[in-house]
Amino acid sequence: MPPFWLLLLVMAAAALFCRFAGYLAMRYLPTSPRIDAALRATPVAVMAGIAAIAVMNGSVTDALALLAAVALTFVLGNDVAAALIAVALAAVLRLAFG
Question: Into how many domains does the chain fold?
């Protein structure tokens, strides 16, 4: 597996590319319900991709935090708040169980 700093660099570059591509696309594409739905789904897809790396490494703590994030997204209706609470949960679980 590549080192963490390389994964972080690639994810940051991908996020930056997507942001710039989004600005360009929105300048030339007319808005529609389909485009709006795709834009709303993008943050969840990015978070799932990041979380999948941790779950592939077999960390029970990260898997539990991911499940909490998914459940909290449905309960709260706010994916950013759910992600922040899940990160806090992961930190508490790591402190408690190492």
Answer: 2
